Amino acid sequence: MIELGESQNSPTEFAFEISHAPAGSLARVGTITTPHGQIQTPCFIPVGTKATVKSVLPESMKDLGAQAILANAYHLYLQPSPEIVDEAGGLSKFMNWPGPTITDSGGFQVLSLGMGFKKVLSMDSTTFRDDDVIAQNKDRLAHVDDDGVTFKSHLDGTMHRFTPEVSMQVQHKIGADIMFAFDECTTLHNTRNYQEKAVERTSAWAKRCLDEHKSLTDSRADSPYQALFGVIQGAQYEDLRREAARDLGSMQSSGISFDGFGIGGALDKESLGTIISWVNEELPEHKPKHLLGIGTPEDLFVGVEFGVDTFDCVLPSRIARTSAVFTPQGRYNVSNAAYRRAFEPLDDKCDCYTCTHYTRAYLHHLFKGKEILAATLATIHNERFIVRLVDKMRECLKDGSFWDFKQDFLGSYQRSSGLSAD
Ligand SMILES: [Zn+2]
To answer: In terms of residue numbers, what domain contains 144?
Structure first.
């Protein structure tokens, strides 16, 4: 087993072991070990923004096969506060989720909410590209400088400042098993010059995150070890992406290096695989890679094929609350009139709690009646669908059938997706 916590003084409770790596491909199967348990990879990690997957019990998340939960540092910083999560014994204990937890750095929310992006909390490239991404300067609620970002709370308008050090302090108090370095997240609409500047800034911030992380790890030696992932930016530019990956991949500061890496920032659907391959060709092979905010079935196949180990995305739960549900034939809206008398499961191939106990007609009724249970049942199904899809990719990588499975699944999913009603 490869130990990734390289600090001599830190407990090395974090590790990543690769068990299968098909020849001639970046794809691999592995196990991430954290103080709160293991994650079999590739793996889809559901998002519980405010330390809850909206409308679903942690026990139900476990039952549907979730291996870890990702929460947002920005939201928990504003409410309830990192101090309260710390006093509660850390994120896992606070939210009664006994398994591994992850926090993002807060950078994406600070910048996206602050810069007048529409209400996009994930990097769903389909909605992302349609946004009027950067509001006029006067409308911005966030201002970036070389030291950090000053932003206005989306909750009450109060002013706050995130620096790499603050992000590390916040994430250490929240106490997730995996944290991300504070990065400057850009969009495809930024100029090349700005992207270069952002990559430079992210590099300087990454170093500061390592230093602060080392100092906090030492001063909180009785807390479980928290791993730190660096975030690779560089938008759609090959030289910037490769440079960022080489830089953060080999970065050492205060005697430590990153435990893994996140691939972040502007990613359009067409070049997703190309960008991931640039990055993963440069990053150290034996460290885990996380693709931030990506969760459509098509994108998950691309990510796994090009060596991504873990994914997170709000998509399954967000669309569930609008009555959109996944099936192997594509997405549909169960609130459509066609399902009023559909006394069959959301997806007859699904083994989730919702599909084994309820009908489309019942969910249609709950959505029409604006019943809270609608969100719960639809979310359980969608999260199970995506978790199980990536689990299946993992099994297929082991027995060599991944590419056949990809072709079969996408053939059916995409052929029918024109019929989907969302
Ligand atoms: Zn289901």
So the answer is: 2-313
